[in-house]
Amino acid sequence: MNEQQEKMRGFYRFHARIYEATRWTFLFGRKEVVERLKLPMPNNLHLLEIGCGTGHNLKPLAEQHPNMKFTGIDVAPEMLEISKKMLAKFLNRTRLLELVYGQDLLPTTVEKPQIILISYCLTMVNPGWDDVIRQAAKDLQPGGKIAVVDFHRSRFSWFRRWMQFNHVRMDGQLLPVLEKNFKTVYKKVQPAYFGVWEYFVFVGEKMEVGIYSDHFKAK
After folding, report:
1. CB half-sphere exposure, 91, CA atoms < 13 A
2. Handedness of CA 159, 161, 165, 168 (dihedral sign)
3. Which of 108, 65, 59, 123 is nearest to 86 (CA)?
4. Which of 16, 55, 68, 105 stands the most exposed, by the fewest C-beta atoms within 10 Å?
5. CA-wise closest residue to 134 among 111, 162, 167, 102
C-alpha cells in the first residue's frame, strides 16, 4: 500500500460514518450507472466492484439480480464493515475483500468477472488509476463490460485545488484511457452545479467478441 492509499484509508476512517448521509449531494450519476446494468442478462454472472465503499451500488444490484454473484473490493476496512451490514441479506453470494486492486492479486477462488463497476474511485487513485483500468481490462472475461461513473474535470482552478485537497484529481484524465482500453458502448459527460464541474458515465466492452454485446447498447 503506497502513501496515497494510506491517506485514502485515513480519509475514510472518518468519512465512512457520514458517507451515505452526505455523498448524495455531489456524487451524481451513481443511480444511472447502476440502471445501465439493470438490463436482461444471462443467469449466474459475476460482477466485481472496485472501490465498493458502503455497498451503495451493490445492494440495488443484488436486489435486482437474484442470480448474480458479486465481489466488492475496497482499501478501507471501515467502509467494508458498513457494506457487510448493507448487504447482510446477500452475503451468501457476495464477497467483500480488503485489497489494493491492481497491486494485490485477486484470490484464485474469485472467478473472472463479466462486469466491472467503478464508482467515484479512479479519480482518488493517484498514482495508479491507469494501472487499475489496465488491470480491469485483463481481469474481465471476453466480451465483458466495464461501467464507470466519476468526476471528469472543472474549468475552475480553485475548485480543482479544493478537490485535490480531498484526494481527488479531476483533469479529464480518465475518459481517454478508458476509451483506449475498451470499446465505447455508452458515454455521457454532464455538468454539475451550473458547470462548476463535470462528471461522466461510461460503459465499455472488452475488445473481444462475447455473448454480452447486446445488453448495454446506448439508447
Report:
1. 12
2. positive
3. 59
4. 105
5. 102
User: Residue 55: left if φ>0, alpha if ψ -120 to 50, beta else—which one?
Assistant: left
Residues 6+ apart with CB under 8 A from 132: 50, 101, 102, 118, 121, 122, 125
Q: Whole-model pTM? A: 0.85
For residue 216, what is its C-alpha cell?
Answer: 448495454
Residue 167 has pLDDT above 90, yes or no: no
pLDDT tens by residue, 75-132: 888 889 999 999 999 999 999 999 989 877 788 888 899 999 999 999 999 889 999 9
Closest CA to 148 of 203, 108, 73: 203
Return the amino acid letter for 191: P
